[in-house]
UniProtKB/TrEMBL annotation:
It holds the Pfam family LytR_cpsA_psr. Keywords: Signal. The keyword Signal applies. It comes from the Bacteria. This is LCP family protein. Residues 1-23 form the signal peptide. Gene3D superfamilies: LCP protein. Residues 343-387 have a biased composition (Acidic residues). Residues 43-68, 341-398 are annotated as: Disordered.
Length: 398
């Protein structure tokens, strides 16, 4: 079947499905869908070829539009591959807002330290409970929602509401990475080639590494991403620096292996991702993920920028952080789809200020939220010139 004919058939099928969805109640659609027997033969069917005998490149479903994706790193011990110790808490200490430019020429990954004090909006959970708006640590939104709903749906939804409220961005999807999934992703790539600048002995993260250039398997890479206590100054911003170092090496390995240029390897990585991660419906498509990858074929390691939101100690509790005014510029640039590296292209970008979800307009600072765990004093983390470092700059050989 020719490509244009396949597209026409797909279009008619899409219209038919849409008409069905509009014509009958959702419950009926669900019931009918459950009666359909699904047979998946994708692994046995060859990729379609064009007139030249070459495999058709998958299409980018969001071509011409910027993408904002929330990446959440959870340390839940539930599920296969996640039981690394006897902890029972379900927390999310890693939050990254990933921005992919509309022309697919660059990507920016903005990390938010977990200890940042922010205004958290109301949060609905699957249990029916609504967590009232409050002022607290950034990562408490996920933790409180999990406690109330006892599921990922509640926790992730509250994180999405929080990020959209604070940044003014519209999130196009999310990726929830749990410990076992992270290990699988790294192992699917064959490990990460990285320079470890100094020896690391972090028993709590079950990690011991010598200094020097080496390839980390999934388990060691997870330990490197998790390590905080006993490594460096023990603060979350410094752990984020190591995570960015690890992610830059991962990006470099993906690009150096030509994953984005090789259709079978690209599909293989996408399959590994879908097996290992929990994602939003907007990202739960192998062809769509592959299409996005093909659209980013020209990406180089210097086109991927890692940034940490600029912070300073929170005055009422120096073990906590607060954003500086420079953080507003980061969100402003992302909303305008402007690069974070270099000077702003449009000084007149629209300002955004989240409303106080508590309705309290007083100037009095609320008290810092009490949290469990080791107390460390974070250093002020100013933004670098032009915000952030590229994957190429972060991933230097020993």
């Amino acid at each position: 079947m020719g490509r244009s004919r396949r597209a026409a058939v797909a279009g008619r099928l899409g219209l038919a499905v849409l008409a069905l969805a509009l014509a009958v109640p959702t419950a009926v659609v669900t019931d009918l869908r459950n009666q359909v027997t699904e047979i998946d033969v994708d692994d046995l069917v060859d990729a379609p070829s064009n007139a030249d005998g070459q495999a058709d490149e998958p299409g980018d479903p969001n071509a011409g539009e910027p993408l904002n994706i929330l990446i959440i790193g959870s340390d839940s011990r539930q599920g296969e591959g996640n039981h690394v110790d006897d902890e029972t808490s379900v927390l999310a200490d890693t939050h990254i807002v990933a921005h992919v430019a509309a022309d697919r020429s660059r990507a920016e990954l903005v990390s938010v330290p977990r200890d940042t004090m922010v205004e958290i909006p109301d949060c609905r959970t699957t249990s029916g409970d609504v967590i009232p708006a409050r002022f607290g640590m950034f990562n408490s939104a996920f933790a409180y929602a999990w406690q109330a709903g006892q599921d990922h749906e509640s926790a992730v939804a509250c994180d999405i509401n929080l990020v959209q409220h604070l940044t003014g961005l519209t999130l196009d999807g999310f990726v929830l990475v749990e410990m076992g999934g992270f290990v699988d992703m790294v192992d699917a790539l064959g490990g990460i080639d990285i320079c470890i600048p100094e020896p690391i002995d972090a028993p709590k993260a079950q990690l011991t590494l010598d200094a020097g250039q080496q390839v980390l398997d999934g388990t060691d890479a997870l330990g490197y991403a998790r390590a905080r206590v006993g490594v460096g100054d023990g603060t979350d911003p410094e752990r984020i620096e190591r995570q960015q170092h690890l992610m830059s090496a991962f990006v470099d390995d993906v690009l150096s292996h030509n994953v984005l240029f090789d259709a079978p390897e690209l599909y293989g990585m996408a399959q590994a991702a879908l097996r290992s991660l929990s994602v939003s419906p907007s990202l739960n498509s192998l062809p769509d993920l592959a299409g996005l990858g093909f659209a980013m074929q020209g990406l180089r390691s210097e086109d991927v920028t890692f940034v940490t939101t600029p912070t300073e100690p929170y005055p009422l509790d120096t073990n906590r952080l607060q954003w500086t005014d420079e953080t507003d510029e980061i969100w402003q640039r992302l909303r305008a789809d402007e690069p974070l590296a270099g000077e702003a292209e449009d000084e007149a970008a629209t300002d955004y200020s989240p409303e106080d979800p508590t309705g309290d307009s007083s100037d009095e600072e609320p008290e810092a939220e009490e949290t469990a765990g080791e107390e460390t004093t974070p250093e002020e983390t100013p933004a670098d010139d032009g915000f952030g470092d590229s994957a190429k700059d972060l991933n230097t050989a020993c």
